[in-house]
Amino acid sequence: MERIIVTVDADLEDLIPGFLENRYRDIRALKEKLEYNDYQSIAITGHSMKGFGAGYGFDEISKIGAELEQAAKQGQSLEVAKKITEFEDYMGKIEIRFE
Question: Is 43 within 8 Å of 73 (Cβ atoms)?
Answer without folding.
Answer: yes
